[in-house]
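hey can u run this one w/ pyridoxal-5'-phosphate bound, need the structure tokens asap thx
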Amino acid sequence: MTPSALPGQPHLAYRDHELCLEQVRLADLALTHGTPLFVYSKAAMLAALAAYQRGFQGRKALICYAMKANSNLAVLQLFAQAGCGFDIVSGGELQRVLAAGGDVKKVIFSGVGKTRAEMRQALAAGIACFNVESEAELEVLNQVALDLGVRAPVSIRVNPNVDPQTHPYISTGLKGSKFGVAHERTVATYQRAAALQGLHVVGIDCHIGSQITQELPYLDAVDRMLDLVQDIEAAGIPLQHLDFGGGLGIDYNGDTPPAADALWRLLLAKLDARGFGQRQLMIEPGRSLVGNAGVCLTQVLYLKPGETKNFCIVDAAMNDLPRPAMYQAFHQIVPLAQKPAPEPATSWEVVGPVCESGDWIGHDRALALQPGDLLAVLSAGAYCMSMASNYNTRGRAAEVLVDQGRCCVIRERESAQDCFALEHLPDPA
Ligand SMILES: *Cc1c(COP(=O)(O)O)cnc(C)c1O
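ok here u go:
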């Protein structure tokens, strides 16, 4: 029988009624490695990257994977080998890049709260650029660089004040956001940066939000950025690179974000029209490179039909899949085995075992279920495992990378001992 692909999920398909990622039967992985289990497709990640690479063909562009989306070392190695740089937000992430064999000269460092220790670590390693988010940070970075006898390459993250029309918690480029320097303060901040001996101004950047599914916020942000570039350069401060951040959305539930290559054709046309098309360009995509490359496998523990709601209790929870609890996010949930005869589907609240009413994975899902059934939570490659916690002393799930027929455990399941390994009982008095 011909495999039937899932909408928006080209690397997932039912073959003989069994859900497969690339060629691998997911039920086999669940039986071998247990659940909850994250499984990622290498081909899906490389296909997502290829869309950006096509979009930038013939341009000077560096794709810096925003690794907070999924920072497993094997994922980082894959993107490093494909030529990517990395957008980091902590010293810990820098250590991951180094451990995965990434090129430190392609690392840019974002985030509103870099510590002095993190600045020293990144300067010693020789990263490409600090994306500075405030005037106060500029002064501290200057001091740290002078103390080390080096000059810190800086770009200033500007807040273009455009509404990305996404969830408020993942909008970052509006007035009143904690991120970036206000549009009106930008030229003055650049003048200050240029005057500081420990800094070397190299670029400008913005990042307006996440899970953006429309072109317009990007087009507006590019226009507002280019206005600023003209003002900054008119003040005698040349900029080597322009960084447009990340934020492109993925299809979680019939969402229709532009394809990366189509979006960049539009944005590059604007850059060309305004004479900036041949500049060094950078972008910082996270979710759009990994989100739809991963699934989380989970098993039905109990069915608890009720008067007003039917609960399906599964072995994955908010500590594994935090997005529904944090952002009311939607993830598709599908069975690993298509039932041969269509059973009547009931509406279920799919919830985890954690002791919180906020611990839900999906509301009102039409599924035909039995205890013991295996399910896949889709679009789980980004901001799931990287946000996972040990709440309720639940060890974090294992992760498997699928590469054509080969499967590799890229992170082992945590044990309870792993969860409390760093704790100590006080000595008796
Ligand atoms: C999180 C983040 C990104 C990546 O965002 P996505 O929506 O995952 O593409 C890029 N740049 C910065 C500064 C970020 O904080």
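The longest helix spans residues 216-234. anyway lmk if its weird
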